[in-house]
Amino acid sequence: MASSSVAATAAEPGPHAAGEKVAAAAVFWHEGMLAHDAGRGVFGRGLDPGFLDVLDHHPENADRVRNMVSILRRGPIARFLSWHSGRPAHAAELLSFHSAEYIEELVQADSAGANNNKICECTFLNPGSWDAALLAAGTTLSAMKHILDGHAKIAYALVRPPGHHAQPDRADGYCFLNNAGLAVKLALDSGRRRVAVVDIDVHYGNGTAEGFYHTDSVLTISLHMKHGSWGPSHPQSGLVDETGEGRGLGYNLNIPLPNGSGDAGYEYAMNELVVPAIEKFRPELMVFVVGQDSSAFDPNGRQCLTMDGYRKIGQIMRGMADQHSNGQILIVQEGGYHITYSAYCLHATLEGVLNLQAPLLDDPLGFYPDDEKYTMQAVDIIKKCWKESIPFLKDI
Ligand SMILES: [Zn+2]
Question: Which regions span the lipid bilayer (predicted)?
C-alpha cells in the first residue's frame, strides 16, 4: 500500500535547489502500536512477589516508544525526517515468514481475550496486543515498500512490539511477529537477489537468523552480548558456530561480544568483521536492525555503547549502503528499554545514517568508562574463525 505523508518538513543535507524540500529519511509509525501493554511485575516476568509496593512496568512498554517518537518529532533531527502512516499487516502477508499453525495459535489466543496471556517467558498477550503486532508488521512492510518503490533510500520503521526474536513457528523475547524478516521476504519477492541484515540490538537476532538459516540470498549478521540460549523459546546459542545450513551455510554470522564492549569495541567489530563480510556479499539492499539496549544504561543489556558509538555505527552502515546498495537502508526498531537514553541513542543513530557531520544533540549522560581490549581480542578470534570456516570470507 502506498504510504501517506503526514508531515513532510525536511530539507536534505547538502546542496539542493533553493526552496526544494526533500525528506532525508522516511519514518513509518502508527500510534495504535502504543496499545500493546505487557503489564507490570518484577522486571519482565509479570510476577508480583507480594512484598514490593511498586512494580515495574514491563520493560517493553509504550513510554519508551513515546519518547522515540517525540525526540524525532521535536529534536534537532526533525527537519531531516518525513512521517508516514503505518498500517496493519494482512494475515496472508505473515505467511511469507511464519507458519500458518503459529499464526493461527496467536489469532486464537487473541480472540480468547485472555488477560496477561503468557505466550512464552516474559512475553504477554493482552487485549490490543495482537492488533499492535499486526501494525508493527504492516508498518515495517510499508517502510520496505517505500524503498522498493523508489520513494526514499532510507526508511525507518518505528515499531513495537519488537520482532527479531520471533521465529517462523514461535514467539520469543517480547516478540510475536518478525517485522524485519517479513520485510526481507517482501524485498526478495520483489526481485532483490541479495539482502543483508545487520542487527545491533544487544540480544541475538535469533528469529531472523532462523528464518533465513537455509538460504544464501540473505546474509544475517548479529552483534550481541554473549547471553546464550535462554530457554525453550530461544534454543539458539548466538555463538560463532551457528553459521547456517545447506545453501545457507556461511550466511549467518554471529558476533558475540564480551560484556562491556563499548564504542571503540563496536566500531572495531563493524570495521573488522561486518564491513569486509558485506563487501564480499554485495547486498542489493541493507536492513539495519537497531536496539538501544546495547547502550551503557540499559536495564536489559551489559554493553556500553553511548550516543557516539551509535552515531559511528550509523555512519558505517550508511557507507556500506552507499557502496553496495545504492544508499538503500531499511532501519527496523527492536529493543531499547531505558526510557530516556534509548531515545537519545536512536537520535544519534539516525544522525549517523543521515551522515550529518556535527552531532546535533549532546549526550546527556556523558562519560562511561570503556575498555575495548577484550572486545578487540574477541573480534580478532572471530575473524580467524570466519577465514577458516566460511568459504566466501576466506580472504577477508
Ligand atoms: Zn534486545
Answer: none
Is 165 an active-site residue? Answer: yes
d(CA 203, ligand 1 centre) in Å: 4
Does a structural domain hold residue 6? no
**Secondary structure of residue 27 in the 3-state scheme:** strand
As given in the structure block, the three cell numbers for residue 239 are: 555463538
Active-site choice (57, 165, 324, 338)? 165
Q: What is the pLDDT along the chain (396 residues), one digit of tens a residue?
A: 334 343 333 334 443 334 334 459 999 999 999 999 999 999 999 999 999 999 999 999 999 999 999 999 999 999 999 999 999 999 899 999 999 999 999 999 999 987 889 999 999 999 999 999 999 999 999 999 999 999 999 999 999 999 999 999 999 999 999 999 999 999 999 999 999 999 999 999 999 999 999 999 999 999 999 999 999 999 999 999 999 999 999 999 999 999 999 999 999 999 999 999 999 999 999 999 999 999 999 999 999 999 999 999 999 999 999 999 999 999 999 999 999 999 999 999 999 999 998 899 999 986 777 789 999 999 999 999 999 999 999 999
* Domain of residue 384, residue span: 25-393
Q: Cell for 96?
A: 511469507
Which residues, 6 or more positions from 145, have their beta carbon under 8 angstroms from its beta carbon? 1, 3, 186
User: Among 92, 115, 96, which residue's Cα sits nearest to residue 104?
Assistant: 92
